[in-house]
Structures are given as C-alpha cells and as structure tokens.
Automatic annotation (TrEMBL):
Residues 1-24 form the signal peptide. Residues 28-73 form the Leucine-rich repeat-containing N-terminal plant-type domain. The keyword Transmembrane helix applies. This is Leucine-rich repeat-containing N-terminal plant-type domain-containing protein. It holds the Pfam family LRR_8. InterPro entries: DNA_repair-toleration (IPR053211), Leu-rich_rpt (IPR001611), Leu-rich_rpt_typical-subtyp (IPR003591), LRR_dom_sf (IPR032675), LRR_N_plant-typ (IPR013210).
C-alpha cells in the first residue's frame, strides 16, 4: 500500500511538472528577453540586481510569464508573450543622461506574438530600422514616445494593419509623413506631435475612418490642413 501511494505521488509530481512546463512561456521567447536584458544592462552600465532597474525579476531559471512588465496569453496553452511594458527603464538625472542604441532592442523583434510594445521614455537614439517590425504583424499598440529616434518612419510600420494605437511623439523624426499612413485602417489614436516632420499633411490621412484622436502639432508641416480631415467623423480630438 505504501509503495502504491509512493508511486501515485511520483506520478502526480511528474504530471504537475509537465503541466507547469506546458503553461510556461516559450523557451525561445524567454531567451530573447534574457538577451535583451543583458544588452540593456551593458548599454546602460546598470546593475542587473538593482530594484530600480525594472527587470530584476527577469532570469532564465523562472517562467517569463511571471516576470514584471511581461504579459502572456491566457488563451493559448503555449502561453506566448503578448505584451511588453518596457517604458522608463533608463534612469535619468539632471547631471547625467543615458542614451542607448536601437540595436539593444533587436532580440525583442523575434517575439512575433507581441500585441503591445511600450518602449517609451528610454532615451533610445538612432534611426528606426524597417526590418525590425516586419514580423510583428500582430501589434495592436506601439508606444515609442519620448525617445531620440531620428530619420523617417519606415514603410514596414505602415504595414502593421492591426495597429489601433501608434505613438511616436516627442522624438526627432524627420521627412514627409507618408501617404501610406492611410493603410492603418484600424487606427484609433495617432500621435506624432513634437517631431520635425516637414512637407504637407497627406490628404490620405482622411481615410482613417476609425480614428478618434490625431496629434500632429509641433512639427514643421507646410500648407494648410487637408480638407479630407473633415471626413474623420469619429475623431473627437486633434491638434
């Protein structure tokens, strides 16, 4: 009887181990996030154990679905990562401002299940490489505000057809705003204020029929406001 109970206990332990294994985040995604943390720590000369760092719970020995700033799907058995809230990771002071390269973010762009990506307020600098977003086709919310991104918005961003919220405000983005923005037919909020966009505001922006908030102020656009904007019946606020 004792042997039977012991065997049953072992079977239950194996079952729970396999069950928890199935419910943990995918190994390749955990590896990508750990790699990002390593690159970020190195780029900012931070301590991986600093509680202010924001990623101290991230380690390869635990389930990444339990980490802070990480949300996993509760619908899929494989528990893929669907949201990363990585805002304000860089600690800034009046005397010292840390800047990091966009390359630090490279591992994150392999997490193709992402629906929400927030990398705002991190003083990230450099041009946005288009290939970075080529595989993030499930993105619904992309927040890149309050950084130091330069150059133009790559066309790959305008191919993220599931996007509902796009915020690239308070950067150093330049060039004309592409008429391809009209391909983001699911957009509810578009925030591009406080950049250095030039040229004219494209008429095609009036085709974003679901848009509820539009912010284009504090740029160097020329010409008037496109007449097509009057067709944005759902837009409750625009500046």
């Amino acid at each position: 009887m004792a042997k039977m109970n012991l065997s049953l206990f072992r079977l239950l332990m194996i079952f729970f181990f396999l069950f928890n294994l199935c419910l943990s985040c995918p190994g390749d995604q955990k590896q990508a996030l750990v790699q990002f943390k390593s690159l970020f720590v190195k780029a900012t000369n931070s301590s991986a154990d600093d509680p202010l760092f924001g990623l101290y719970s991230w380690n390869s020995s635990s389930d990444c679905c339990q980490w802070e700033r990480v949300i996993c799907s509760t619908i899929s058995q494989s528990r893929p990562v669907i949201a990363l809230y990585l805002d304000s990771l860089v600690l800034m002071s009046f005397f010292e401002v840390t800047t990091i390269s966009f390359r630090v973010l490279t591992p994150l762009f392999g997490v193709t299940s992402l629906m929400i990506l927030d990398i705002s307020s991190n003083n990230i600098q450099g041009e946005i490489p288009g290939h970075a977003f080529a595989n993030l086709t499930k993105l619904v919310d992309l927040d890149m505000k309050h950084n130091n991104f330069t150059g133009s918005i790559p066309p790959q961003v305008f191919r993220l057809r599931s996007l509902r919220f796009l915020d690239m405000s308070s950067n150093e983005l330049t060039g004309d705003l592409s008429k391809e923005v009209s391909s983001l037919q699911n957009l509810r909020e578009l925030s591009l204020e406080d950049n250095r966009f030039g040229g004219s505001i494209p008429e095609e922006i009036g085709n974003l029929s679901k848009l509820q908030q539009l912010s284009l102020g504090e740029n160097i656009f020329v010409g008037g406001i496109p007449s097509s904007l009057v067709s944005l019946r759902s837009c409750k606020s625009w500046t």
